[in-house]
């Protein structure tokens, strides 16, 4: 059982692109709740960024903005990201026939790749917020491909890129469809910009 200190150090190594950290996370089931919690915290931070956006960028926001963006936005984004992880696993194992021994190891690794979404907290900054939102999505893509390739060296770079692209497309395409101002503002991070075009 990994201690909190050890988990923090391993995650720090992973986020600084130390590939051996992802191998450790892949092989140790005790990292499962930590990886999922880290991704959840990243989503929550992106939701807080969307909520703060109303104070700094928007002229006016609908009633219930906090509930919609922070609470429901976090829930919808987490559910869609989980579905995206499932798509990545199915594409890699069933379509592209890559050898990934266990789905739980894959979830630990790929969920940690999504921690970069926390950068979307900065979408509330006037003038540059949308750029930070795009950077967050780009980081998630890069970090997830890197995580998969580090944990599963036999997976080709092309197959990892295809799987991550399709998995991310689930939440990148569907999250804006769930949201529509002024009633259903279930957005996080850069998706807040889709509400007020």
Which structural traits does this protein have?
single chain; mainly alpha
Please mark out the parts with pLDDT under 50 across 5 or more consecutive residues, or reply none: none
The share of residues in extended strands comes to under 5%
Q: What can be said about the biggest beta sheet?
A: none
**What's the overall average pLDDT, rounded?**
91
Identify the overall geometry. globular
Count of the domains: 1
Beta strand count: 0
What's the Cα radius of gyration?
17 Å
Order of helices and strands: HHHHHHH
Helix coverage percent of residues? 55-70%
Class of secondary structure makeup: mainly alpha
Provide the fold topology.
Layout: H1 4-15, H2 19-27, H3 32-56, H4 65-95, H5 103-113, H6 129-151, H7 157-178
Helix pairs in contact: 1-2, 2-5, 2-6, 3-4, 3-5, 4-5, 4-7, 5-6, 6-7
Q: In words, what does this structure look like?
A:
This protein is an all-alpha fold. The protein has one domain. The chain contains seven helices and no strands. The chain has helices at 4-15, 19-27, 32-56, 65-95, 103-113, 129-151, 157-178. Helix 4 (65-95) crosses helix 5 (103-113). The longest helix has 31 residues, at 65-95. The protein starts with a helix and ends in a 19-residue tail after the last helix.
Short description:
The chain has 197 residues and is mostly helical. The chain contains seven helices and no strands.
């Amino acid at each position: 059982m990994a201690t909190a200190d050890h988990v923090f150090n391993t995650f720090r190594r992973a986020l600084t692109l130390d590939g051996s950290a992802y191998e450790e996370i892949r092989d140790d089931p005790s990292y499962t709740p930590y990886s999922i919690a880290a991704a959840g915290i990243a989503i929550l931070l992106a939701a807080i960024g969307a909520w703060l956006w109303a104070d700094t960028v928007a002229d006016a926001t609908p009633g219930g903005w906090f509930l919609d963006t922070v609470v429901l936005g976090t829930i919808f984004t987490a559910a869609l990201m989980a579905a995206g992880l499932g798509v990545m696993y199915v594409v890699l194992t069933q379509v592209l026939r890559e050898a990934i021994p266990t789905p739980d190891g894959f979830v630990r690794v790929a969920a940690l790749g999504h921690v970069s979404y926390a950068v979307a907290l900065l979408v509330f900054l006037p003038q540059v917020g949308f750029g930070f939102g795009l950077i967050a999505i780009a980081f998630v893509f890069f970090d997830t491909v890197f995580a998969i390739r580090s944990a599963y060296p036999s997976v080709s770079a092309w197959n990892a890129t295809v799987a991550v692209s399709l998995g991310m497309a689930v939440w990148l395409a569907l999250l804006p469809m769930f949201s529509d101002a002024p009633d259903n503002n279930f957005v996080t991070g850069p998706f807040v910009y889709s509400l007020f075009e």
